[in-house]
Amino acid sequence: MSLQAELEHYRNVLIVRLRGELDHHTADIVRNKMEAEIMRGESHHIILSLKDLQFMDSSGLGVILGRYKQIRSKGGKMVVCDVNPSVYRLFEMSGLFKIMSIYDNERMAISSLEVVS
């Protein structure tokens, strides 16, 4: 299975919806797309929507952590929403939930970021 990455701007938030598998074969695609959008400077925060992400490996974690550091260095936040159980377990084991908030859906994630914007 491949990966589809849909990027959408909502106010000052970049919403990234991932569908498929985020692994060593597809990590560079996501890294490049997200990095380009962050560098454009229009987005202060990122919502990572993972409802349709079936699989992720350590390469995917590396991409997410790298973009987290990139947006934090600009004073922004990254939050995660709609995480399925297998991906949730990987986030939990890696400790990413200690630095990123998780929300049930995009609406809740957007609400949380509008408070801090």
Automatic annotation (TrEMBL):
Pfam families: STAS. The keyword Phosphoprotein applies. Transmembrane segments: none annotated. PROSITE patterns: STAS (PS50801). CDD domains: STAS_anti-anti-sigma_factors. Belongs to the anti-sigma-factor antagonist family. This is Anti-sigma F factor antagonist. In the phosphorylated form it could act as an anti-anti-sigma factor that counteracts SpoIIAB and thus releases sigma f from inhibition. The lineage of its organism: Bacteria, Bacillati, Bacillota, Bacilli, Bacillales. Residues 3-113 form the STAS domain. It comes from Paenibacillus glycanilyticus.
